[in-house]
């Protein structure tokens, strides 16, 4: 089980909040300092902390975007056309251009992001909006997804460097998280079928007109530790108090009101206090994995034997 005490969770939070550097390095140092927890668990905790940090810093970042653009232009003048010169030299010598980046013109935006302690792609998005004030939001998103569309070559280089080195935000990170979420939903369905559950998935429920739907809605409820279970929700993340309360408010409470009690699975663990969270009411049960066979009880139906089946049975036996 991956259930973290409040005290231990506070230690992890403090480490993350005091860390100043790249998030990929923060993850590595966390894994070394807290080896008892998996990289998935620690990485998910970092991601939750980063989301809160971005929300709290977004206004200040946007307000400072103009000065960041000026700072970038100043550094760009100092480096002159060094990035183009090095690229031409790399082509001539047939080596990767990154081998020749001696003057660090490629990581100006990344260093700004470290200073602001936010994901570099978040800063890039705000920066591009200020650098190209007439560009539409869709165009900014396309520039972030495909930096080759950016007309300024040094800026394109910087955005590209952030895009491929950032693990907490951006198109690549979003895609990876989406795949992980789907993977655990598929795993949940497989385990439910193997356990003998009869259920409807999100697609089944939406076709019948439901808007907010759990990952699994039991066609036949089952007992889990003495509690009737009507639905299961999969969360491929770590469950902290803030995000759990938000999930209860936005999703889980509606499932409970509509279908009755159910289970939310935080596959990467949770902080122990959310299991007894008052917001859970009588309809949300928190776990960190699929229920064990010895924890579940299923209904058995003693259906009446039809007369034709009874006659066939006796006929076969004669």
TrEMBL record:
Its main location: cytoplasm. Keywords: Cytoplasm, Nucleus. It is found in: Cytoplasm; Nucleus. InterPro entries: CDIN1. It comes from Anopheles maculatus. This is CDAN1-interacting nuclease 1. GO terms for cellular component: cytoplasm; nucleus.
